[in-house]
User: Fold this.
Amino acid sequence: MIVESASRRRVRTVLAVAVVALFVFPLYYWTTTAFKDAREIFNIPPNVWTFDPTLKNFEEVFGISLGFLRQQEVLPGGGNFYMAPRLWDSIVVALGSTALAIAISVLAAYALSRMDFRGRHAFVGWVLSTRMMPPVAVAIPMFFIYKDIGLMDSYLGIILMHTLINLPLGVLLLKSFFDDIPKEIDESALIDGASRFLVFRRVILPMAKGGIAATAVLCFIFSWTEFIFVLTLTQTGLKTVPVVSSSFVTSTGTAWGNMAALGVAAMVPAFLFILLVQKQLVRGLTLGSLKQ
Amino acid sequence: MPAVTSAKAVFSSDHPLPWLFPLIAMLVVFTIYPLIYNIWLSFHEYAPFRRELEYVGTDNWVALWNDERFWGSLSVTLTYFVVVLIIELVLGMAIALLLDADLAGFGVMRGLLTLTLVIPPAITGMMFLLIQDAEFGVLTWVLEQVGVLDGTAPILSTPSTALLGVMLADIWQWTPFMVLIFLAGLRGLPGEPYEAAMLDGASGWQIFRRITLPQLSKVIAIAVLLRGIDLFRMFDYVFVMTSGGPGTATYTLSLYAWQQTFSFIKWGYGATISLVSLVLILVIANLFIWIAKVRW
Assistant:
């Protein structure tokens, strides 16, 4: 290890703090916007550090009463900015598509990791090329297909599309976790007379538990943040949080405070999740190609 | 016979097909079939008076070739792709080198940078719309104070700067992606070559250029591939921030295809544009994989 002098270390620390602060600032500004009322959001010069915090925006978005809105301002049914059901839609879609993507991926990843067959390399290439497809090239035909078969505006329809976008991640990442488990473990169990399925179920799955959990967390996040499929394949029914965030732009102006409140509510679970998988993050982001 | 027994029987052989079947089924139904449907759609167009699709032969493809807006959106997509990729690559490497030290607080700072990666890009777009608002945006205000902006040409509604404003959101959200990957690469490098180079009196730049960079080539190739794919098919930021405007300054291929289909009810034409985008990205990405020898 190269040892730096104390003054170089100080310069490095100061620069690092400045850079990270620059990256954190938009998050800080967005989060504080959620706690401002309209007057302060539209203030010039912008109110960055000093403002009167209010929970009004959260009350409107979640249809709850915390005493910041006057009684007559609390609208029955929540009003235009009532978005709690959209959070629910996001959760259902993300959980459903994560479960389905993992179920399909563990089976395929096991075969790709353990069995030798002709065309295996090409098959991996096919899975990877699914990751390259522009979503719009799938969303356009799926719009017409879903209209024909009645899957528009349905949980199932969106769950299937979000499963699809997570399959390359699921298959390739889980394959890399299975590859970490020595093949001798399978082979000795198979020689002892256990079936493939039993080995998979009783030996490999438990050993890869951590990897499967990390993969599931990443699938959840990618479904949670997905935009174009929900935008295209829903009309009046369900909508996830990223898509409704643009509905705060109205003819009378943009409800920035409410939008920021919803945005903050959408980020908090994702932030918690990402902290859970810090150790596998790089491996996950590179579809299992780089191990930390 | 109970279902469990039959499942066991199916999965017990060493044949990979039962294991791969659900995946193959999903990919065929949700990528191959839509692809064929899209090709079919590109030879049809919605006829508003008959209110149905009619066969138009190669009309859409000919129209595409002569459509200046299409070529414009291709050029916006390529500009965005090249410029943002280079900025994120260079900035990502610089920040990774900066944060690659075991000093107090550096672990926390590395963790903070990962937060941007899990924000829905549509919300990031909104965030940067607020920051760059013509009247009360905090970035607008700062730039006006230092004299870069004078209040007559807001970033996102001026043709020459709108794409830059969109790029800013992308650079903010995804430079940390590069940083994390490069940091992992840097941490995995062996220490001996560095010690030898130091003893030989090599400069910092020489060490980076001759030792660090070659060893990171695989890591860089993967980061460029994955980020490049997303940059080429970018949709979310322009959709929420500019809708392609002002004029056509920020029309990407994905947005142009989507708007032709859904805003202008030119179903077949939108499908045609999306197909071009699909073919281009598959060719570019696979060429890159082949040249850079990226392996999974």
